[in-house]
Design brief:
- The chain is an alpha+beta fold.
- The protein folds into two domains: 11-127; 136-274, no CATH class.
- Helices cover 29% and strands 21% of the residues.
- The chain is built from five helices and eleven strands.
- Helix 1 (15-35) packs across helix 2 (96-106) and helix 3 (136-157) crosses helix 5.
- The model has no long low-confidence stretch (mean pLDDT 96).
């Protein structure tokens, strides 16, 4: 993978830009949410980072030829056709409703598009305020985090045949894959390991990677971690690799540091579930 160096903007200074992108991602999810058949896991709503185009892309609609996308750095909503930008709209100065109207017109889906019904963090955008063009550098840094996270999670699960595709889920704005350890067993009862990345949330106001074993093991069964991850035990149980620990590494070591921490945390989670 081609790792983008991180740390141009500190992980703790990305929250405002992250919240705007989180809301903008709901627009990218709207076509799949509205125009595709419902799936049990809400897969029609999810997104994926396109490393070649450096955009967060939604599900294909319009006979599979049209894809909505979000360009982080310029804060633009785009429609791709055949993998090429077909139209774009600067979100700065526009409200969520105006962004949705623009997208509906470009997809010839007037009165059909609706936003996914997710409870999002409090923000003026939820009440009709316009997007802001501020924080361009922070959005560029978040684009680097999303690009790196997509490849890091793919690398972590490459030898896991039971892992789900790596996708971005608009509800929590996280990138994740789920490794099912008990195929054929109901999801609530099956053992699994989630491998993912959050750009920041109520648990941590900075980007972080996570490994979550399910069912949550007892605290005493969690083995010690020494490769950069640490156990999180408040509200949920899992190993986390914080952004501040990643940017503390030299640029040329960041990818190796993340890969090693994820590998150790996955092994530890599997051992805790099998113990």
């Amino acid at each position: 993978m081609t790792w983008r160096p991180l740390g141009a903007v500190l992980p703790t200074q990305l929250a405002d830009a992250r919240l705007q992108l989180h809301f903008a991602a709901q627009l990218v999810s709207a076509p799949g949410t509205s125009l595709l058949p419902h799936q049990a896991d809400y897969g029609e709503t999810n997104l994926a980072w396109d490393s070649e185009l450096s955009v967060l892309a939604g599900r294909a609609v319009g006979g599979g030829s049209l894809v909505s996308a979000l360009v982080f750095e310029s804060l633009e909503l785009a429609v791709l056709k055949g993998g090429v930008e077909h139209a774009s709209h600067a979100l700065a100065g526009s409200s969520m409703g105006e962004g949705l109207d623009w997208l509906a017109e470009r997809l010839d889906a007037r009165d059909a598009l609706r936003l996914p019904e997710h409870e999002l963090p409090g923000h003026p955008l939820a009440h009709g305020a316009p997007f802001s063009e501020a924080d361009r550098n922070a959005r560029a840094e978040l684009a680097a985090w999303f690009a790196n996270a997509t490849e890091a999670v793919r690398g972590a699960i490459q030898r896991e045949p039971a892992a789900s595709p790596v996708r971005c889920w608009p509800h929590h704005f996280d990138i994740a894959s789920l490794i099912t350890l008990d195929p054929g067993v109901d999801a609530e009862d099956a053992r699994s390991i989630g491998v993912g990345f959050s750009p920041g949330d109520p648990s941590y106001a900075q980007p972080y990677f996570y490994i979550t074993p399910w069912p949550y093991p007892s605290p005493e069964s969690l083995p010690p971690l020494s490769s950069g991850a640490r156990w999180h035990r408040e509200g949920w149980t899992g190993a986390v690799v914080l952004g501040e620990a990643i940017i503390a590494q030299r640029h040329e070591r960041q990818a190796e540091f993340v890969a090693g921490a994820l590998r150790e945390a996955m092994d530890a989670s599997r051992a805790a579930l099998e113990g």
